[in-house]
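Let's practice the habit of predicting before peeking. Look at the sequence and jot down your guess about where helices and strands might fall. Then scroll down.
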Amino acid sequence: MRKPNLILITLDEVRPDHLSCYGYQRINTENIDKLAKDGVLFETCISASCFTPIAHASLLTGMYPNVHGVRDPYCVLQSTTIAQILKENGYRTAGFVGNGLLGAKHGFNAGFDYYDEPKEGEEIFERHRYPDEEQREMFLMGNWWIPRAVEWIRENSSSNFFIWGHFYHTHEGSEHYLLEKGLLKEGELSEFQYYDAKIKLADEKVIKPIVSTIEELGLYDNTYFVVMSDHGTTLGEHPAEPIPWRKEVTYPQHTNMWDTDLKVALIIKAEGLPKGKKVKGMVRSIDVLPTLLELLGISTNLSLDGTSLIPFVEKGEASGLVAYAEELYERRGPGALQAIRTDNYKFIRNLSEGTEALYNLKEDPGEQNNILPNVWTQAERKMLRAWREKMNAYLWKTTGLRQAAFSEEEKKRIEDRLRALGYIE
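Done guessing? Here is the structure:
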């Protein structure tokens, strides 16, 4: 019997509350909605980071950063990925990414038979903002890979296959390129750098052609889909400084540990899962890998940080999970940040500034009221002490971290790209 195919699509910087299947009414993301109707939607999923490479590393490995090793723009992914696991189990594998920080130099190509990433000399969408020719070539973000992914599916349709497609054009900064190419309409849904327009574009130009191709080939019932985002973004819910080098732009940006930055969409369509079910409660992006392995009937001896979500799907509600998130690359945001989140609380620590904050998510879901100064009970203090110890463990109990072999010139180019993105000064 043929094994199920698996397609994982990650949409960069997309908040779940801007998808119509999550209740958003301003745009209709009908193709994503179709997968939600045929699968399971998780109402609250928390990413392991607000920074794309760290978030994806945790998603692909089911591990936290202290294990997989990606903690800054120069690190190399060190843990076993879903691509490696599936390749060992007879799958043809292909990856298509739009961010150079997810490139082969950083180890994200491990396990893929074919890997499609931004390349030097290719057209990139930041040229409008930064017209300098040399800088434009260094900024490797974009990569419209959809036609090549469809072609790869057709060529490999007789095999068991796994595809990971990371769509970057939903990220802030792509709007100038998309407007010039006629993929966005001037002035239509233009708030927050055409945020909603880009999400609708992803639904129509990424999800639709891939799903349609799978249906045309008669593979829909035997193909599992995961559609999710890598991290969210803040759209003014919390004050922020204008993005460096883009002084006219303040939002969207995702450099903090707020739920707006960490909460991601998660939809899984697979045989054996109920159709149209919504799962309440908090789950984590690190839980996606173990869930998929269980659905695919693949066992592994890896000790994962995540857990399978199948029992929660059966109950209709997740409970008892603790999510950890970090962004320790100080140059990118307000400092070296860590967060621990439960269904009821969010605890944020800024190691650079020496500050802490605690939020009661049931009473204050917008994270506006820091209740830490009012924590006096012994039970609350014990809880905070345990969370600080947990955070410390994630800092120090690490694998032998390894950085990519970048020359000083290459490091400078990476920093130029991050600066162009507004991540660093």
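How did you do? Confidence is low (pLDDT under 50) at residues 126-139.
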